[in-house]
Fold this sequence. Notes:
Domain Response regulatory: 6-120
Radius of gyration: 21 Å
InterPro entries: CheY-like_superfamily, LytR-like, LytTR_DNA-bd_dom, Sig_transdc_resp-reg_receiver
Oligomer: single chain
Protein name: Two component transcriptional regulator, LytTR family
Keywords: Phosphoprotein
Largest sheet: 5 strands, parallel
Strand content: 25-35%
Helix content: 25-40%
Domain HTH LytTR-type: 152-259
Amino acid sequence: MKKNLHIVIIEDEVATARNLEYILKEVNPEIQIVKILQSIAEAIDWFTLDDGDFNLIFSDIRLSDGLSFEIFKQINIRKPVIFVTAYNDYAIEAFRNNGIDYVLKPFDTEEIQRTLHKYDTLIADDSKNGQDKTESLLQELQHTTKQYKKSFLIHYCGRLIPVDAAKINWFHTANEIVYAHMADGRQYVVEFTLEQLEHELDPTLFFRANRQFIINKSAVDAVEYFFNGRLLIKIHPLPQEQILVSKAKAMHFRKWLDQ
Length: 259
């Protein structure tokens, strides 16, 4: 692994930035964190004045003041970027296909070690090629738009019923069957798994709360603190069982609600 690696972190969640810094130094004690930046505005100011004494950037995508791509639109940063995100969509897949990696939240030591190894093999050995790849991927990602599912054609009582995805309050799986629940209490069987729906639904509207539930933001009535750092989600119509978000996903859920 490359020694004396100087890294800039762009991340608005303090706990996540500290965790990333800890893991990076655990993987390679010689890594130096040059700067932790918490917003687009702060990053633009810092990169404008900085002399480029760093090798690699770890950057979240969704920051408190917008998408981090805006930084790279305004500042010509000729250094490789590994994007950190809680959203796995086609744009992220474009990064994988073109050689710049991403880290999916919540990440662990093994994932960080893997992505640093990929940096070594794809970027460090050919810095000019790496710079060109970074710029190409930034342009591609900025122009890549995921088309999310807007409606479902559902079989119901011998008929086909079109249902607007945004009007579905939550999805629930039981006995390997997935149900879509509407605001008026109706429920329909949908021919998708929750894993498939997680990729098909707009992540700004829907959140995978746990293994059993995907919930619509508009259906959330309240959030309560639960045992061991978990969150208890109150939605309408109220399901028969509790909807709990794990401690590991709690921060991402709160950020999703606060967008």
